[in-house]
């Protein structure tokens, strides 16, 4: 009854606060949080990738089956030793400021991603030794060693192209006025309220774009997002709450789209980053981290919080993924073993703080984890933070443990190395195991699937014992769509692509 009352109250609030009618060809999209910096070199949030999909085309994209497909690059190919990738650029593409996208522009962008002091893409592009301009429409990326995941990297932020002219003028402040080559150009941003983009009439694929304007609105409360969808205040929302599905499926004003996700949630543990790590009981003894994992019943967590819609996992892949290491399955809950491990470590009532984003869903997950962990003897406190604040704190090492999402990548390396390699760009807790890095590097140097899987199995044997991360579950992406919208195609990466999306005639 309390849930029903809360939902009705939220509906009433949404109706009362609904904005005045907007132009007929404006689509309003509800996001779970406000993105961080709107610069692909500096951004790190998942919702930032959703905004970038409308703003900044990439060299390569992935389709709904995770196959690579052309975007700004019309074709590409590896040389025989796998140490060079040559890309042919789509002719006639221009940036939002009218300058041409050519090979020099691609070189300028890739060089920025791999060398700029402020770039968070350095780890992803570290194999790039040189970017050579072959001719105005041809670029050759020369590598220090073979790098199988590079296509996946170029299908994400490091493949997003910005105007070199704008970059020369703005530098790292480009986030305030990003100028890209995507279907929509930047208009304005009001922090925590909205990001407005306007259709770019000279977009190379303009025939597939049917809205004049896109307005992204951050709404951390899933109930409020859903209420705004039902009231007509939004046309599209991401990450519906699974417990709302039954009700929404009965409402003719909305449609549900779903896709098994690459995304997962994990508990990042600060192992060796600053004072918080030096004082944390979780960092001092791996037996305490093992006890924490054994206190958890992931399957029960899926039922209680997600109505069984999400998928329990203990690895950075879903259990049905071809990259899942079947020899290390999801461990069963074992409270007796957890208590014994704490006794062996000499800590009978270990206390720590779990930082979580200010989303009702993540808060509910944290509460269930807190309850389970307490039965093993843990005293877990919950710290609820705005998503960007949590990320900023974690980046500085100002955390003990954090519940975080990774949106997932088509290549397995992009789901592991970012957190766990010594130089991983999201290695907040400064976990570093050189043997693990050796296996991850070996997997990157070959395109042979069996050899890669063997290296990832060896890597899993290390990181699953280190427990710098305790992986919890994979998402099912759930989008709510106004009935008047057609053409939306769900993707397992969770990114909203507006090509071919339109209002019904």
Task: Report on the architecture of this protein.
By secondary structure, the protein is an alpha+beta fold. The chain has 3 domains: about 1-55 and about 185-260 and about 475-505, D-Maltodextrin-Binding Protein, domain 2, CATH 3.40.190; about 60-170, Dipeptide-binding Protein, domain 1 (Alpha-Beta Complex); about 265-475, Dipeptide-binding Protein, domain 3. The chain has 17 helices and 19 strands. Strands 1, 8, 9, 10, 11, 12, 13, 14, 15, 16 and 17 form an 11-stranded mixed sheet that branches. Strand 2 and strand 3 form a beta hairpin. The longest helix has 18 residues, at about 450-465. It is globular, with a radius of gyration of 23 Å. The chain starts with a helix and ends with a strand.
How does the SSE layout of this entry go?
Blueprint: H1 2-17, E1 26-31, H2 46-55, E2 60-62, E3 68-70, E4 73-78, E5 84-89, H3 103-115, E6 128-135, E7 138-143, H4 150-154, H5 164-170, E8 184-190, E9 194-199, E10 213-218, H6 222-231, E11 236-237, H7 245-249, E12 254-269, H8 274-279, H9 281-284, H10 286-294, H11 298-306, E13 311-312, H12 335-345, E14 351-357, H13 360-376, E15 379-385, H14 387-396, E16 401-406, H15 413-420, H16 434-444, H17 449-466, E17 469-482, E18 485-486, E19 502-503
Parallel strand pairs: 1-10, 1-11, 14-15, 14-16
Antiparallel strand pairs: 2-3, 4-5, 5-7, 6-7, 8-9, 9-10, 11-17, 12-16, 12-17, 13-17, 18-19
């Amino acid at each position: 009854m309390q849930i029903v009352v809360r939902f009705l109250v939220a509906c009433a609030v949404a109706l009362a606060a609904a904005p005045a009618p907007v132009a007929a060809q404006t689509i309003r999209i509800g996001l779970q949080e406000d993105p961080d910096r709107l610069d692909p070199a500096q951004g790190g949030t998942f919702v930032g990738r959703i905004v970038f999909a409308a703003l900044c085309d990439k060299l390569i994209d992935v389709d709904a089956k995770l196959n690579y497909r052309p975007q700004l690059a019309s074709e590409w190919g590896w040389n025989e030793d796998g140490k060079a990738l040559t890309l042919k650029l789509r002719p006639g593409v221009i940036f939002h400021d009218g300058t041409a996208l050519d090979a020099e522009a691609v070189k300028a962008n890739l060089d920025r991603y791999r060398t700029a002091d402020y770039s968070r893409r350095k780890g992803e592009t570290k194999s790039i030794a040189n970017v050579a301009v072959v001719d105005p429409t041809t670029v050759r990326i020369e590598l220090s060693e073979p790098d199988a995941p590079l296509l996946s990297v170029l299908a994400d932020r490091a493949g997003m192209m910005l105007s070199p002219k704008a970059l020369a003028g703005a530098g790292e402040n480009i986030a305030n006025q990003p100028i890209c080559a995507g279907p929509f150009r930047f208009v304005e941003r009001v922090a925590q309220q909205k990001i407005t983009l306007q259709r770019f009439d000279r977009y190379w694929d303009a025939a597939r774009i049917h809205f004049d304007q896109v307005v992204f609105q951050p709404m951390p409360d899933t109930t409020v997002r859903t209420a705004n969808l039902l009231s007509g205040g939004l046309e599209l929302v991401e990450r519906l709450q699974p417990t709302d599905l039954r009700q929404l499926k009965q409402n003719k004003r909305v449609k549900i789209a779903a896709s098994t996700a690459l995304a997962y949630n994990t508990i990042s543990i600060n192992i060796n980053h600053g004072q918080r790590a030096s004082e944390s009981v979780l960092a001092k003894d791996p037996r305490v981290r093992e006890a924490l994992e054994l206190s958890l019943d992931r399957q029960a967590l899926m039922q209680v919080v997600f109505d069984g819609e999400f998928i329990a996992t203990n690895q950075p892949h879903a259990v049905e993924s071809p990259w899942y290491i079947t020899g290390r399955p999801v461990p069963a809950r074992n409270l007796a073993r957890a208590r014994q491990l704490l006794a062996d470590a000499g800590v009978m009532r270990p206390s720590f703080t779990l930082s979580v984003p200010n989303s009702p869903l993540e808060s509910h997950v944290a509460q269930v984890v807190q309850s389970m962990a307490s039965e093993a003897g843990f005293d877990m406190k919950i710290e609820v933070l705005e998503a960007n604040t949590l990320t900023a704190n974690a980046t500085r090492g100002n955390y003990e443990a954090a519940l975080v999402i990774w949106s997932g990548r088509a290549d397995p390396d992009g789901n592991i190395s970012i957190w766990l390699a010594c130089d991983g760009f999201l290695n907040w807790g400064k976990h570093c195991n050189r043997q693990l890095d050796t296996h991850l590097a070996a997997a990157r140097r070959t395109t042979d699937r069996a050899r890669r899987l063997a290296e990832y199995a060896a890597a899993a044997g290390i990181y699953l014992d280190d427990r710098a991360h305790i992986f919890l579950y994979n998402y099912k992406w759930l989008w709510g769509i106004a009935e008047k919208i057609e053409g939306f195609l769900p993707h397992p990466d969770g990114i909203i692509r507006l090509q071919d999306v339109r209002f019904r005639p």
